[in-house]
Every structure is written in structure tokens, then in C-alpha cells.
Design goal:
Blueprint (H helix, E strand, L loop, with lengths): L2 H5 L21 H8 L4 H25 L1 H19 L10 H23 L3 H32 L3 H17 L5 H12 L4 H5 L3 E4 L6 E4 L12 H26 L9 E3 L6 E3 L5 H11 L12 H13 L18 E4 L7 H10 L5 E5 L6 H10 L5 E5 L6 H11 L5 E5 L5 H10 L5 E5 L6 H5 L7 H14 L17 E3 L9 H11 L5 E3 L8 H8 L8 E3 L8 H9 L12 E3 L8 H11 L5 E3 L9 H4 L17 H4 L8 E3 L8 H10 L5 E3 L17 E3 L2 H4 L1
Parallel strand pairs: 5-6, 6-7, 7-8, 8-9, 9-10, 10-11, 11-12, 12-13, 13-14, 14-15, 15-16, 16-17
Antiparallel strand pairs: 1-2, 3-4
């Protein structure tokens, strides 16, 4: 019975009545192909037996002819075996273990040849030579069959399984390896390259850049550099960056490139925002000094502008302390401005009196460690002090404020306090002793209430007069009679924005009637209780000199009252127009109000704040800034050109969160507003990178600039 009959299952049945090959294990396509052409296990066993017989005959002939001929024959067979296995090392389907065994045999042949020349162990070498010949004969058919199967079928899973079987057979037949090859295998394993890696195909190479060993699979192009994977990735990344730059340059040269995004570069100080490019020499010097301020002993002759810029940078970097504070003090200084005093202790603040006794302007921000004792030292020691600005002085109580005003109040011209207590006792002392005050700011003071606001107006009741009586007695102690109440006749600027406590509309109206006709700057931001009567009956008749107005978050005023207030621009009661106007978070503002604002202040408006005015405002209202307003429902308009002239002197506008702002609207506004320099567009998704631009104009908060 031949092999084909056995393969078809026609052999003798087993004891249970089945054929001899009824139970079969899993096999691959290569196994099926080998069975079809007659290559089977029995065929390989027969070939091995024939090879063993031939080896035995050759060994007997070698013994008869002499040790020299046997050695020559064995060496020739080993070389033939090595030539058969060496070319297959490049093929991924050939077992690399067979080639390793052939190399081991060749190494042992060389060692024994040396021993034979020295005349040591001739009988032992003959025995070992016969064993090597038998092993070589056993390995040769396996390699030959594997090569034949790979050349016929190609690569596949069956070839891999055949390699595994051959490797197991080789392990049984060959049991000797040289110490030299063993050390090489250990070195390869330490480098991450073992026989399993080589079995997948490839060559062990060395990188030309880092000299690291790696496995090179596939054919290597002679014109290409031999690089490991990590070095190759680095080279490819650099090449891609260079190609992108060259592609951009070609596009710019041909005129097909998209407009490049204009970015603002924020310097290390966090304050000098400049366009990307070369900074000025002054800015470079300022940055260098701020970076090494701990090594500077004195600034020398420096302008006030540069000194303030340095102070801002150093305060932003949080390095203003008792050591660096002395750089901004001196007997010749008439102005001391420190933007961050968080690291200045009480003793450091008192040094201002000693080192700068001639100060006329004192501005301290974040001065949380300034207490009543330091304020008393300022009032007594700074005899020429005329302007005071303190932010965060929450440790100073009303008694200390009152004492300070009694000492320094008559010479004060400007007083600004923010984030402090400042209750009724401090307010009474200010009204009584600061007669020459021109600028007053009391913003976000925790103890400032409606009674404090009422002290700015003339007292109406005996109770109010009694509250102010003690301060007038202290002021006129040397006189026999108490002088009557006198208002702040020189006051030009009043900022009462964002009070912590509620302010009534009636009290605010009293103050405006008393001081409104002389005010040029008025900030009532956060006065949520003022109503239409305050605006139409209080502010409108007494705002002839008003230039700057802030009604941010005053949502109790109706839209119609706001429109009527600005519609009186033609009357003499409203003066010549506003220079700065803030309607921040007046959510109910409409197009009609904005048209009235433009008609009233078109020839004087420099700054306009419309932040978050988004509920009812449309593109039609914004176009009024460009003089392109259309007739509005409910209004009689002769023609848009005759009614709205635009704002040609506008320099700064805040359109943040006004979502009707688009590129087309901004284009028309920029055409009419030739002096516009700064546009804030936070939260305006329709303003893209293609928004109109020109030299000197900057967009702040554009979405495309932050992505």
C-alpha cells in the first residue's frame, strides 16, 4: 500500500473497526500540499535511515583509509552542509537553529584539527568525528525538505510549524554547542535580539547615528542610510517640518497662501503685549533689569514711565519685597506707586516715610498689611501728600481714617480707596476736613451704606446735622461759632461703583442735585436700585459738564428712559457729548438706545463699552457706529445719513459677548471709525481670522487666536 492509499484512508482498520487515520489533528495548507506530492513522515524517516547507513559506510571507510582521509571527508561534508544552510538564513521560513548547528560543527572541526596536529587524543577525535558526521547527515535532509517546501509553496503558517518540528528534532540529535556561540546568544538576548526575533526574518544591524543594534527586516536600499527606528522617526519628523516651511514659502510666493494668523506675544513680564517681532531696545533693557533685579543697586536717572513699567513687571513676578522696594524710593521721589504690596510687612511700609518724605502721590495696591498705625505715620510724616490711592487696606478702622483726614485732609486733592471698610465715621471726617477734594473714589467698600452716600449732599434733617456736628466742632475748635456745612465745591470726579450694600434712588438723586452740575466723571456701576426718575429728573438736568459716565449693571432703568436720556443731546442740558460711556451688562439695551447714543455723542465719543449687551441688540444697532443706521420701527427718521453720522473719533470699543458681531459688521465699522485701535471680542464666535485689520488695530479675545 503506497502513501496515497494511506492518505485516502484505505489502510487496515484499527481494532475498533475504523481506519488507521480516522483521528487527525490540525494541519495547515502546507501539510496538505506535502502529502499530495508524497512528502510525509515515513518519507523523511526513510531518507534519514538511508543517510545514516551512508554515514556508517563512510565512517568505516575513513577508519580503513586512515585518520587523515576521514577528517578531510568529514570536513568536506560539514562545509557542504554549511553552504546549504547559509543562504537560507535570509529566508523567514528556514529554521535558524540548523545554521547555528552547522557553525558549531565547523568550530569543533577547527579545534580538533589543532589537537590532531599536536598529537593529542587521536582515538577520541575519531569517535567524535563519526558522531558529527551522523548529525550532519541527519540535519541535511531536514534542511533540504524545508528549502524545497518553501520554494514551492512560499511563506505561511505551515512553514512556521515545519520550522518548529525541525527545531525540536535538532535539539534531540545535536547536544553540543561551543562556549563562544553561547556567549553570543547571551549578548543578543541582553540586546533584545533572540532567536525568536530572527525567526521572524531580518538581520542584526548597527545604526549609523547612535551605533545601537537593531533588527533590520526586508531588503535594505543601498542609497538609504542605515538607521534604527527611533533615529529614523526623528529624521522623518525634521524632514516633514522642513517640507511644511518650504510649502508655506512657495504658497506665499505664488500668492495662494491663506492670511497668516496675527498673534500677540506676551513677554515674560506678562504685561508688555507686543506684536510678534523685534522688541524695542527699551523693552529689552526693561526685561533684563526685571530678570536680574536682585543684583541691581540703583536705577539711576530713569524716566517715570520706565520706572512704572519696571514696577509693574517686578510686581507681576511677585519679587517686590523689603529688599527690592528701596529701588523705587528716594528723597527725590515725588511719586511712589507700588502695584503689589503683598510681601511688604508693616515695617517695610513705614520705610516709605523715612526714605521718601517728599512724596506727593502715594498709590499702594494689595496693601493688606497696612494697618491704622502705618496710616497715622503717613498722615504725620508725609507733609506734602496730596493724592492717595489704597486698595485692600481692610485693617484700617474708621477711627484711623478720621484721624488721618483731620491731619492730612486739608491738603488732599485726590482720595481713592477700594476694598476697605470705610463706614459713617470715616465718611463724616472726609466731608468735613477734605474741602479741596477734586477726585473721590469709594469702590467696593464693605461698610459704605446709604447713610454714607447721603453725607455727600446737604443735610435735610436735624439728625443728619447732629451726625456731622462733632466733626465740625473738631475742625473749628479755635472758633467760637461752628461753620455751616459746605459741600465739596471742587469735586470733579466721583466713583461710587459696585457698593456692597443697597443704595436708594432717592439718596442718589439728592447727591446728583448737589454735585452733578460740577461733575465731569460719574461712575454708578452696580447701583441696581436707581430708576427712571433718577435718570430723567436727577441726572439729565444736572449733567451739563459730564464727560465720562458709567451705568453698568443698572438694570432697573427702563429702555425707554435710557433712550430719552440720550435723546436730549440736542438740548443744552446734556452738554457737548460724552467721551467715555459704559453700558456694561445692561442686558435690555436695544438698537434704539444705541442710535440715540450715537446721535448724542457721535462727535466726541472715544470709548464705548457694550459688554454682554446681547439680548435685544442686533447688527442694525452696531451699524449705527458706522453711520449706516436704518429706520427703526416706532421712530420717525428722515434719512439715515441725516440722523446718524457715525463715531469717527472712536478709539476703544468692547463688544464682548455681543454675538451679533461679525466680520462684515466690523468691516463697515472700521471704515467709518478711522481711529479705532482696540476691539474686544470675547465670546464672539462669528469674528474669525479673516476679520478686517490694519496697522495699529488689535483684536483682544478673538476665538481663533486662542485655539
Amino acid at each position: 500500500m503506497d502513501f496515497n492509499d494511506r492518505a485516502r484512508g484505505s489502510g487496515p482498520r484499527n481494532p475498533r473497526g475504523g481506519t488507521g487515520n480516522t483521528i487527525k489533528g490540525p494541519h495547515s495548507a502546507l501539510t496538505d500540499y506535502l502529502q499530495e506530492i508524497g512528502v510525509s513522515r515515513h518519507f523523511r524517516e526513510r531518507r534519514r535511515a538511508e543517510a545514516a547507513a551512508a554515514a556508517a559506510a563512510a565512517a568505516a571507510a575513513a577508519t580503513a583509509q586512515g585518520q587523515g582521509q576521514a577528517q578531510a571527508q568529514a570536513q568536506a561534508q560539514a562545509q557542504a552542509q554549511e553552504q546549504q544552510l547559509a543562504p537560507n538564513q535570509d529566508e523567514p521560513g528556514v529554521d535558524s537553529a540548523d545554521a547555528a548547528l552547522a557553525r558549531d560543527l565547523q568550530n569543533e572541526e577547527n579545534v580538533e584539527a589543532e589537537l590532531e596536529e599536536s598529537g593529542v587524543g587521536s582515538s577520541r577525535m575519531a569517535t567524535r568525528s563519526r558522531n558529527r558526521q551522523q548529525a550532519a547527515v541527519v540535519v541535511a535532509p531536514i534542511a533540504e525538505e524545508t528549502i524545497e517546501a518553501e520554494s514551492t509553496k512560499g511563506k505561511g503558517k505551515g512553514a512556521a510549524r515545519g520550522k518548529g518540528k525541525g527545531k525540536k528534532k535538532q535539539k534531540k540529535d545535536s547536544d553540543s554547542e561551543s562556549d563562544f556561540n553561547k556567549s553570543d546568544d547571551e549578548a543578543d538576548q541582553r540586546a533584545g535580539l533572540n532567536r525568536s526575533s530572527a525567526r521572524k526574518g531580518g538581520h542584526i544591524k548597527s545604526c549609523e547615528v547612535c551605533n545601537k543594534r537593531f533588527l533590520q527586516r526586508g531588503e535594505h536600499d543601498e542609497t538609504d542610510r542605515l538607521l534604527c527606528p527611533s533615529c529614523r522617526r526623528s529624521v522623518e519628523k525634521a524632514q516633514s517640518e522642513v517640507s511644511a516651511v518650504s510649502k508655506r514659502a512657495r504658497a506665499v510666493a505664488s500668492g495662494t497662501a491663506a492670511p497668516k494668523r496675527r498673534r500677540l506675544k506676551k513677554t515674560a513680564d506678562g504685561l508688555l503685549e507686543l506684536e510678534a517681532g523685534l522688541p524695542s531696545l527699551q523693552d529689552l533693557c526693561v526685561r533684563a533689569i526685571a530678570k536680574h533685579v536682585d543684583q541691581v543697586e540703583s536705577f539711576g536717572d530713569i524716566s517715570v514711565q520706565s520706572l512704572n513699567k519696571l514696577c509693574r513687571i517686578i510686581c507681576k513676578m511677585r519679587v517686590l519685597d523689603e529688599n527690592t522696594m528701596g529701588l523705587f524710593l528716594g528723597a527725590e521721589r515725588t511719586s511712589v506707586v507700588l502695584y503689589d504690596c503683598t510681601r511688604l510687612a508693616r515695617d517695610s511700609l513705614e520705610r516709605i516715610v523715612e526714605m521718601s518724605p517728599n512724596v506727593q502721590t502715594l498709590a499702594l495696591e494689595y496693601c493688606g498689611r497696612l494697618d491704622s498705625g502705618v496710616l497715622d505715620a503717613f498722615g504725620v510724616g508725609l507733609t506734602q501728600l496730596a493724592r492717595v490711592q489704597l486698595e485692600g487696606a481692610f485693617l484700617v478702622d474708621d477711627r484711623a481714617w478720621a484721624k488721618f483726614f483731620r491731619v492730612a485732609g486739608p491738603r488732599l486733592r485726590s482720595f481713592q480707596v477700594r476694598f476697605s471698610g470705610f463706614g459713617p465715621a470715616a465718611m463724616r471726617a472726609l466731608i468735613t476736613h477734605c474741602e479741596g477734594l477734586e477726585e473721590l473714589r469709594m469702590s467696593e467698600c464693605t461698610d459704605f451704606n446709604d447713610d454714607c452716600l447721603g453725607m455727600l449732599a446737604a443735610p435735610l434733617t436735624e439728625t443728619e446735622e447732629a451726625l456731622q456736628e462733632p466733626e465740625r466742632l473738631l475742625r473749628d475748635a479755635e472758633k467760637a461759632e461752628v461753620a455751616p456745612w459746605r459741600p465739596l465745591a471742587r469735586l470733579k470726579s466721583l466713583d461710587l461703583g459696585h457698593p456692597h450694600l443697597a443704595m436708594s434712588s432717592a439718596t442718589a438723586m439728592r447727591v446728583i442735585r448737589a454735585l452733578g452740575s460740577q461733575l465731569r466723571v460719574l461712575d454708578l456701576s452696580g447701583f441696581k436700585d436707581i430708576d427712571d426718575n433718577f435718570l430723567l429728573l436727577g441726572l439729565a438736568p444736572h449733567s451739563g459738564c459730564l464727560q465720562e459716565l458709567s451705568l453698568a449693571e443698572c438694570n432697573s432703568i427702563s429702555v425707554e428712559a435710557m433712550r430719552q436720556f440720550f435723546a436730549q443731546g440736542a438740548d443744552a442740558t446734556m452738554g457737548r457729548g460724552l467721551v467715555r460711556l459704559s453700558l456694561n451688562r445692561c442686558y435690555r439695551l436695544t438698537d434704539a438706545v444705541l442710535h440715540a447714543v450715537v446721535r448724542h455723542s457721535c462727535s466726541s465719543l472715544r470709548s464705548l463699552d457694550l459688554n454682554s449687551v446681547d439680548d435685544y441688540l442686533t447688527e442694525q444697532g452696531l451699524l449705527a457706529l458706522a453711520g449706516l443706521a436704518l429706520p427703526i420701527e416706532g421712530e420717525e427718521m428722515v434719512s439715515s445719513a441725516a440722523v446718524v453720522k457715525g463715531c469717527p473719533y472712536l478709539e476703544d470699543i468692547d463688544l464682548s459677548w455681543v454675538r451679533c458681531t461679525t466680520d462684515s459688521v466690523l468691516e463697515k465699522v472700521l471704515e467709518a471709525c478711522g481711529r479705532l485701535e482696540k476691539v474686544k471680542v470675547y465670546g464672539c464666535p462669528e469674528v474669525s481670522v479673516f476679520a478686517p485689520t490694519r496697522p495699529g488695530l488689535s483684536y483682544v479675545g478673538r476665538v481663533c487666536d486662542t485655539l
